[in-house]
Amino acid sequence: MEFNRLRSFYITAKYTDLNEAAANLGIPPKAVAQNIKQLQEDYGVNFFDFVQGNLVLTDAGHMLYVIAQEIFNLEKQAENRIRGFKQASQPQKSVSPSIQNEQKVESLIRIHATETFGAYYLPTIINAFKQLNPQIRIKMKILPLKALVNNTVQQNNDLGFIPEYVENENLQIRELIEDKLVVIVSPTHPLKALPQIKPLNLEGQFLVMHENDPIQHRAIEKFVQDKSILLFKHLEFSNYEAIKQAVKDNAGIAVICNKIVSNEIRNRKLVAIPLANQNITHKFYMIRPKDRIITPSLGSFIEIAFKWAESYIQSISY
User: Fold this and answer.
1) 223-245 pLDDT, tens digit each
2) CATH 3.30.70.1020 matches 180-281
3) What torsion do the CA atoms of 273, 255, 250, 232 make, to the nearest 10 degrees?
């Protein structure tokens, strides 16, 4: 079995998304699709089905996925063992304390993120990085926006990810991703069949809100402005998992970033409907200390983050 084709299959099955698989593999989605197609043609068996536009493993696909997982786990074990033998066979050199400290810093990347980005976006980026750099340790912490910015200015981290633009002469700030906002409803909700949500569709609806997300609040207000629409903001939670569960239970509807609910949409536990005003989006930014030197490992992480963001944006329709 051709190894690259098997890897393309395995990563696609793991994420059930062709674009995320491509971002993790570092190759175009077309190349991933071609590898899977060739693998299926080699054996005359379909490993994936398309169900309502989503990739779903067939019985043969499930079988192959379990075996592939064992193969790639063994591959990692083999690489680690070989590195151990190589290090043991090399003569030990005396290293000055300053160089030792530099090596220690190089092997660790410290990342701070606000809750939304840290919980729903960053894990995919970190996983893509670790696939290529298993020896680099990542230390990630969730912080409120103000504390995160202060920590970055004080160089207590290497990178920060924030949900809004900030002005600070000590920071370099770059827009990483602009995600679309969608309305989520339960699969039994009357709005589920709409192709898009217009302001009047929200008349009289019960909204489930995040109590600490001013961007979400501003987006809803912008969407319905000047329409004199009566909205009932009757439920507020402090995290998005509780919001998603409330919507699943038909307690109301919510306006939320597409990435936050991508798994539930893929598994058909929730329905996402785009807003009619496509200008209502949510941006996330990468910040870092302006004068800090970018090490090779940090540079690799930044490059992978922007490659993933580009792939993700291409996968969603505006």
Assistant:
1) 877 677 777 767 888 888 999 99
2) no
3) -120
